[in-house]
Amino acid sequence: MHGMRSLTKVMDVDSRRHTEFVDVTDAVSDIVRESGVDDGFALVYSQHTTARIHVNEHEPLLLEDLTSLLERVVPRDAFYHHDDFSVRTVNLTPGERINGHSHARGLFVPVSEHLPVSGGALMLGRWQRIFMLELDGPQSRKLVVKVAGIGVA
Known about the structure:
elongated; 5-stranded antiparallel sheet
């Protein structure tokens, strides 16, 4: 007997550095297994404008290269209107961070990834891992994982 199934979970993810690739693959895989979905999709979505989702190889030198690339393309010490609190009037909070560069870096990385599930598991390539890319850490973040598809009863 086959039937549609879905499961939505919110994951808490902590970062330790300003810019950091946090591997969340195992936690997402656990949610896929828990869902009972045999054939479908898993959506991994960041609820933050300065934390994104990225699929790539978990190779430390590559991750260092990608971090350096973000710094070259969107330098932390450049001027960003978002950081001029003398004129900015929207979405201000007490203790506001200087993080215009973090928002600008988000332009280059998607807020979510949609991944296929087959045989009750993520269909990742040999070296592929799922990362939360922290652009304004260290912080505690929330990721939404939604798994939907056909399950085996």
